[in-house]
Amino acid sequence: MPGYDQNKGTNRFRNMVVGVNAAVPLDNGTYTTGINFDNAATTPAFVSVEKEIHDFLPWYSSIHRGKGYKSVVSTDAYEAGREVIRNYVRADRDAAVIYTKNTTEAINLLACAMNQQKDDRDTVISTWMEHAANDLPWRDKFRVEYVEVDRYGRLDLNDYEAKLKKYRGKIRLVTVTGAANVTGYLNDIYLLASMAHKYDAPIHVDGAQLVPHVPADMRPAGSPEHIDYLSFSAHKLYAPFGSGVLIGPKATFEEGVPYCMGGSAIKLVTHDRIWWEEPPAKCEAGTPNLMGIVAMAAALKTMNKIGMQNAFEHERSLLDYAYGQMCNIPDIQLYSHPDKQESIGVIPFTVEGVHHSLISAILSYEAGIAVRNGFFCAHPYCERLLGYTAKQIEDIAEKNALFPGLVRVSFGLYNTYGEIDKFINFMHTIVDNKKFFINKYGNSRGLYNIKNEV
């Protein structure tokens, strides 16, 4: 298993990550080494990123407009980051690499640009499995058609092609997640791209869950498999401080007004006219998050050294191990099927008779294990997986009742089989002692107030 020494029971990637041995408090007053199984939300930082930030901080300064030495150093680092990103995802040399705060801002930026260039193409093809960041920005600008998922939560390719045929000539964009943040399913982005291009539609891939886990390749512009637009975030890639990126043809961003307006985006301004900079500068108004960009570039370099295929294979082995163990725990229902669709290391589940928010709290307070619960910002997808109708969800909202939801375990390249064993053992403890834990955490005098989480 790549990255894992079975004889020593250690993960060689583990010492590359900051904070993996940090002790966290438990309800009984003791401490234990924390286990982070919430990597689909945010990963810890690489040690290499921590060092790069520490080494660069003395040289931190303004970019582009300063003539001082530190400003020149900072500007060079800022621009060099684009090439690190471009090479990492094999983007075309003339593509715009635009810095953003995160994937959410990247997609909002793209939606703003697309809205100004409809050219009688007023339809966006999306899917039922999207994160809100790749759904909501399109709704007030386009007619959005959602590709169906099957009973396992996988994309229905027949429905996808049917929608491409039906709206051919009217499609401004196909926008789809590369990997689902709820189920971990990896979509065949090259097949989806080829099908979109066959029907004269460009494609955007939300790479927030894709790029941190599998080798990324946008393919050349002349290829049917070319990914026209790609977005992703650094905070899921072992780089803190909130940075992200949008990559796509410069022409998309040359016309119209930018999503955010201000300094750095302009060449010259009078009270009567604005001359905008060329992309990507046009799309990067204001003082940028330079430290976030330095962190992202350092993280991508480290990922290259590790080898993304090695990382994926290790995480896949963790997934297979954990999934097999979870199948044997009574009263647990699993909502992903990695045996039926290639997946990243994500497992959504529920425990019969115990609210998802309680499971998350019990794991944290009793065992020091961090997971995520709720709808994971992918509400329609989770509602569909759980079998709720739109009317049922409306009733829940109107009554201000507790939301249904799932618990999600998600792995990073530094996680270990030993951590999974501890999780599995404690899940057995929870299932075997439901009444005790519900009384301790869930009743009116409990230690935890159940609340709605998204």
From TrEMBL:
Keywords: Lyase, Pyridoxal phosphate. It comes from the Bacteria. The keyword Endoplasmic reticulum does not apply. Residues 35-423 form the Aminotransferase class V domain. One of its GO terms (molecular function) is cysteine desulfurase activity. InterPro entries: Aminotrans_V_dom (IPR000192), Aminotrans_V_PyrdxlP_BS (IPR020578), PyrdxlP-dep_Trfase (IPR015424), PyrdxlP-dep_Trfase_major (IPR015421), PyrdxlP-dep_Trfase_small (IPR015422). It catalyses: (sulfur carrier)-H + L-cysteine = (sulfur carrier)-SH + L-alanine. Belongs to the class-V pyridoxal-phosphate-dependent aminotransferase family. Csd subfamily. This is Selenocysteine lyase.
